[in-house]
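Q: May I have one protein plus its fold?
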Amino acid sequence: MERQSASGDVRRAAMSSFLGSAIEWYDFTIFSTAAALVFGSAFFPAGDPTTQSLLAFATLGIGFLARPLGGAVAGHLGDRLGRKTTLLLTLSIMGVATAAIGLLPTYGQAGLVAPVLLVVCRLVQGFSAGGEWAGAALMAVEHAPTHRRGLWGSFVQSGTPFGVILAILVFLAVQIGLGADAFVAWGWRVPFLLSFVLLGLAMYIRLRVAESPVFVAVRKAKPTRTPLLRVFRERPRQLVIAALTFVGCNAIGYVFLSFLLAYGTGVLRLDRGTILLVSLVGGVAWCGANIVGGALADRLGRRSIYVVGYLLFAAWAFPFFALVNTAAPLLMCLAVAVLCIAIGLTFGPQAALFAELFPPAFRYSGASLAMAIGSILGGAFAPLIATFLLAETGTVFAVSSYMAAVAIISLVAVLALRERELGDMRAADERQRAVSARSGAPVPDEAGR
């Protein structure tokens, strides 16, 4: 009976984390998609389309600036009060901020007030996202058997492409159902308002998940008073490495998620439906690659899978845009599918990797801060940088050079990882889980049951 209860906790934790991640990325994807397709004309003065796109992508990047603050606050709460309580808070904030965007006035209705309100909502989104991912990742990973953390953690990561896929499907349905004119006029608001439905489902499941058994042991031993300070004092090297391992994946991910939409519709003159369908293919490939990457990381080590992924990024950066430039849907699908396999190999194992770089007492703070820093350095302004490079050079292969450069930066960080150090942290967590078991908290057996 105890094993069945523990197995249920593992599954519920994984599903809760999956849905939380899906909502986070549904929210961010509908924002980035709207920024590429609508926000330039809806929230900014009429003028040059490139300038409008740059302003819209700037609002996308601004949200990342709030992530470190959100990560610091949520990390402190998560390390002191618990993973579950903090996750309920971050999820609620994210859902409300996203739905609010669907109710904002446009520039034509409210003038400069409109972009100001958009930036405020984006900052609130960024604040909540700064703490959501780490908590969701830790709930899944700390409930899982240590030798299957890559696999169970990959479910959290798979929430990202699932959220992307869902957002794309909603945008396609709204555009096809309403038509292009109605979509631009008001239809773009529908995906934002639907966030409330996803929020209710995720809250229902998250309320039924038990607290992390690793945190139960931390609470029993008395939580640390200053988790964030301990990150800087005791794990500065791991913080830098974790952040840099995410830079390439995040930057290239946002080239795929946002810049490609603007490039496909604005430069290649493809209709929105075609480019969204191409993105949908990428999302499916990304989802599958996450699971494969996480499972392989359990067998071959985190470092090895990351190395393969970043080498693939560097090698594919130029063929990617060569295929995209054909404007042939099948070749574009091939381009994004291979790119998203590389994303999955460097994103799927991330939950397990970040958890194993920091001790349980300040793990939430360390993982949140590393994610936030990596996001700022990587994806925050990636669409803006890509748009600027294209405008200044006149060739999209300047964006390929940017993609290869950030991949190499992250590859260097990955090579600095020490598998033995990760193994030592897994052993320490096993001891914490034993404490939880003695205190009466069910712990899954080594088969994951």
